[in-house]
Amino acid sequence: MARVKFQTLTEQMFYALLCLKEECCGIDILDRVPAMTGQRVSIGSGTLYTLLEQFLEADMIRETKVTGRRRSYILTEKGRKMLEKEYKRICAQARDYRLIFGEDWEGEEGSI
Fold it and tell me: What is the spatial distance between Cα 92 and Cα 88, in angstroms, rounded to a whole number?
C-alpha cells in the first residue's frame, strides 16, 4: 500500500517547514537546519527543492517573492497545522518511550 503523502513528516520535512515560520529562501533553509539541530540533521539541495515544490503543491507553504533565481517562501496555516500535528505525534512517541524505559532514563543525548 502506498504511503499517504504528508501523513507523517520526515526529519528533513519537519525542519524545512519549521524554518519557514519566517520568510526565507532555500539557501537559508540549507544553512538553518544544521544550525538549529547541532549539525544532527542536514538537507541536500536536491531534496530541499523537491520538498519545496511538493509543499507548494500541497498549499503548506506559499511563495512570497522572486528575485532572479532566488525564491522566498513562508509557512501557510495548513503547513503550520501539519507541523503541529507532527509535533504532537513525536511527543506521543516520547511519552510511550518514557513509559517503557521509565521517567528517569537518560540516553546518549540526555534526558527526554
Answer: 6
Where do the H-state alpha helices sit in 9-76? 11-19, 26-36, 45-57
List, in order, residues 6 or more apart from 27 with CB less than 8 Å away. 70
| Residue with grid cell 524545512, as numbered in its chain | 16
* Full-model pTM: 0.85
**Domains delineated in the chain:** 11-102 (1.10.10.10)
pLDDT digits (tens, 9 = 90+) for 48-81: 999 999 999 999 999 999 999 999 999 999 999 9
CA distance 85 to 75: 14
d(CA 60, CA 74): 9
Sort strands 70-75 and 61-67 into parallel, antiparallel or unpaired: antiparallel
Q: Which three cell numbers stand for residue 26?
A: 532555500
